[in-house]
Amino acid sequence: MELKTDLKIDESTGLIKDNCDLEDGEISTYKTGSTTLKYNSENFDFYTSMVVLKTGQATSEDYGTLINPSQNTSENKGERGFKRIISQLRSLRSNNNNQAEPVEENLDDNKLERKQENVFALLEMNSDKSDNEESVSQAFTSPREESNRSNMNDFTDIPYLKLAFSKLVDPNKRYSKLWTNILNKLKKNSNELDSKKENVTVLGSGWASTTFIKNLDPKLYHVTLISPRPWFTMTPLLTAAISGRIGLRTVISPVSRYLFKYPKRGFELIKGEAIDYLGNNTIKIKTNCNEEKIHKYDKLVIGVGSVTNTFNIPGVEKKVSFLKTIDDVREIREKLFNNFAIAKNNNLSPKEKEKLLSIAIVGGGFAGVETAFELQNLIETDLKFMYPDEAKFAKISIVEMLPNMLPICEKSVSEFANNTLDQQKIKRYNNCRVTLVDADAINVVDKNSTSFKIPASQVIWVSGIMQTSFVKKLIDKIEQQKDNRFLLVNPDLSVIGTKDMYAFGDCSRLTVKPLSSIIYKECVRNVSLQKQLCSTTQKLFEGRFN
Ligand SMILES: Cc1cc2nc3c(=O)[nH]c(=O)nc-3n(C[C@H](O)[C@H](O)[C@H](O)COP(=O)(O)OP(=O)(O)OC[C@H]3O[C@@H](n4cnc5c(N)ncnc54)[C@H](O)[C@@H]3O)c2cc1C
């Protein structure tokens, strides 16, 4: 066996690959990136940490020498320790070279069968059966050739099997036939188990879908995840990423994080989107490479979220930035920084600067109000530092159709938002409806039906949600779906009027109120009832004792 293989250590243990490059007994510079250690014209391939483990006698002094030999001179102990390791490596290598290749053990049919039965008995006794099958099925999909396995040391990637086998065989012999029989049987079991699993196709990788995948039992289902972006976006953090208070990488996490628990063959990720429902448990999908495909499922779980509602207002699609993804955040920041650069470098008049640096946010909900504050923060800090003469011309406006900002909140919260916006000099337009988005302004109509323009060279549109085109098509195709704003679902989240189809999150709506919401309302009612009772009782007492 080659020393290199013997010394390899699994990267999943977290040990770092280090390299020292030595020329003929001299300690030379420390390098990373290659695994070769050269000493007296001999090459040793190794991982530093493993050398320490392998020699057994290495001290931290040796370890230090290996980690950074350039800091040690030939006089110090470090080099002596290092030389000792080299000599141990040499003797390891010669031992390995002298080791005889394991020979094949000839077993007659009876012995073969008995050993095989014993291995399975031990497997069952030692651990959960399905775990074995899972690790075996993973091993089958690994690049290693099955036919090359015959000695128990070839099965380090199937630890359960190796453990069971090691109790019954001579580690220095080969058992090709026995291994093949056992593996074939396990493979058959594993395939049978696989074929029994239902294929659950999950659309989207947002809040709803990722939570679902995390909680699904991988022993019962195969999962196919179809999403245009293979990551989860923590939407409440998007606004903070606009000001740069947090980086874009912090806002997303890859879906692979949720897939570790699935065996390799139990999960498929398709980068693309569902574009149509074709009936008979099939959908049409379009991959990110623009390929259209028919996809069959046993169960379809729809978590495609929503898109921003543009209310079909002219100019919106062409001119505005939305705020749903990290690409949107990038676009908003890029445009803002570009405008500041143009304002600085083109000798613009103050009026022109004011026009160029005017930003309007449409929608006074949470996302809109937070965006306004974050933009103001960005202008007051980074942009003011980079463009001190231009920052004072920047102006942010926020437009809301209803009488207050944060209209879904109770009055005191809305008023607080109104006041804080005023304090920060963010121009607030309540009771105003946008009718047109122009190149450098938005047209609005107020509650008295008066029209006017708000200057805006940059518009950020965060005004509520509507359905994706896929969900719209789906609603059109299902007769029992009566509301064209949402996919209506039963309390078990099955889509009304369909079979094997479920929906959750922004794209769906429950037809009956969930029990939790009824209980919540009841609790709130009871609390206010209690409050009333208390205050009445208090008044009674106050009346009696005062
Ligand atoms: C800026 C901002 C801040 C927010 N803050 C809050 C908050 O503080 N609290 C709160 O409760 N809510 C907040 N929300 C709302 C919240 O993000 C949504 O309610 C939530 O994301 C809905 O989850 P979902 O899983 O239904 O959809 P999403 O999380 O939007 O995920 C939809 C997924 O489906 C994918 N997809 C879309 N179309 C297709 C298709 N055809 N095929 C396959 N995949 C598709 C998308 O790429 C995405 O991965 C905020 C929203 C925004 C935009």
Automatic annotation (TrEMBL):
Annotated TM spans: none
Record's keyword annotation contains Oxidoreductase: yes
Any one Gene Ontology molecular-function term assigned to this protein's record: NADH dehydrogenase activity
Record's keyword terms, sorted: FAD, Flavoprotein, NAD, Oxidoreductase
InterPro entries in alphabetical order: FAD/NAD-bd_sf, FAD/NAD-binding_dom, NDH-2
GO cellular component: mitochondrion
Pfam families attached to this UniProt entry: Pyr_redox_2
Region of interest: Disordered: 127-153
Residue stretches making up the FAD/NAD(P)-binding domain: 199-508
Signal peptide residues on this chain, from the entry's feature table: none
Family membership: Belongs to the NADH dehydrogenase family.
PANTHER family tied to this protein: CALCIUM-BINDING EF-HAND DOMAIN-CONTAINING PROTEIN, NADH DEHYDROGENASE
Name by which UniProt lists this protein: External NADH-ubiquinone oxidoreductase 1, mitochondrial-like
Source species taxonomy: Eukaryota, Metazoa, Ecdysozoa, Arthropoda, Chelicerata
